[in-house]
Amino acid sequence: MPSVGLPKLLQLICRAAVAAGVAMTLSCTGAGATSRIKDLANIEGVRQNQLIGYGLVVGLNGTGDTLNNIPFTKQSLQAMLERMGVNIRGATIRTGNVAAVMVTGNLPPFGTQGTRMDVTVSALGDAKNLTGGTLLVTPLLGADGNVYAVAQGSVAINGFQAEGAAASITRGVPTVGRIANGAIIEREIEFALNRLPNARLALRNPDFTTAKRIAAAINDFVGAKSAEPIDPSTVQLSIPAEFKGNVVAFLTEIEQLQVEPDLAAKIVIDERSGIIVMGRDVRVATVAVAQGNLTVTISESPQVSQPNPLARGRTVVTPNTKIGVTEDGKKLALVKDGVSLQQLVDGLNGLGIGPRDLIGILQAIKAAGAIQADIEVM
């Protein structure tokens, strides 16, 4: 064996140790996907607030509300003009360039006075199109009845509508638009986050195991029992002494911690679109599945019988109907006990069935008590 110097030997040992460490890291991370606490939970109290308001959109090219059919649009137009010093009481108004709309938006958390937010404008009457319209000053109210923002601006529409004498085409929804940065925040919602003695994390997907893992990760980081799960969706946080008066710094540190979430086995089915989503922990007991389709085919081929050219008679149409019935029966397919999600999908795909039939099969397996998962039908 060739001799190796001490420095060279130390380098080889270090390289082997680094390679072993990398291999251990890869094997550990491959066991399950981890996520940041920031992506698993919300800080209780840090939330948006919904706002709503009623206003008028003007400047439409004859596609607004019909004033004779929509009385609230006419009343709003009259009231607005009277506030501007124009008296039209008793006059006949025949404009089609005005539409009554509802304006909605979400007040962001910690939104300060003077900052802007997006709003959505939706037609309330029989307006056909809001393209080219301008929203007049509209106060936006919260659930408590106070005004928190004021919206105004040009409405941007994604859809369009065009029509002629005998045909029309509509793409998207031309009666709903958006105004980017169209509202100015006028009132702030007080929330002293930095002065809180404790905080709570609200899990987006409630689960006992995930809540316990989040609390354990935080306690390991702090070095003391600072977090405690109180239910599947809430983790109580006690602010450590070194972070008193600086809760933001504490939350910034813990929201980057990595946690492996744990979710219950679930199958989500949307019968309207035929979409099926299965969780990775779905397991099936031993069960045999068969599926068959009954197809009925009806074809019409009428026969025309005509008399001779010089004969007296009339043309007769004789109906000729053919009916065929075929049944495409599949053999029983055996799904073994404790199969994984991939094996379950492969076994069901082996039956050659579509999503619609697969929905019925999954529900039948659940009814037989052979599937260990919750089925949620949307």
Automatic annotation (TrEMBL):
Name of protein: Flagellar P-ring protein
Source species taxonomy: Bacteria, Pseudomonadati, Pseudomonadota, Alphaproteobacteria, Hyphomicrobiales
Gene Ontology biological process terms, A to Z: bacterial-type flagellum-dependent cell motility
Compartments (UniProt record): Bacterial flagellum basal body
Extent of the signal sequence: 1-19
Superkingdom, natural source: Bacteria
Classification via InterPro entries: Flag_FlgI
Pfam families the UniProt entry points to: FlgI
GO function term, MF aspect, one: structural molecule activity
NCBIfam families, per database record: PRK05303.1
Function field: Assembles around the rod to form the L-ring and probably protects the motor/basal body from shearing forces during rotation.
GO cellular component terms, semicolon-separated: bacterial-type flagellum basal body, distal rod, P ring; outer membrane-bounded periplasmic space
Self-association state and partner proteins as the record states: The basal body constitutes a major portion of the flagellar organelle and consists of four rings (L,P,S, and M) mounted on a central rod.
Keywords on record: Bacterial flagellum, Cell projection, Cilium, Flagellum, Periplasm, Signal
Record keyword Lyase present: no
Residues spanning the membrane: none
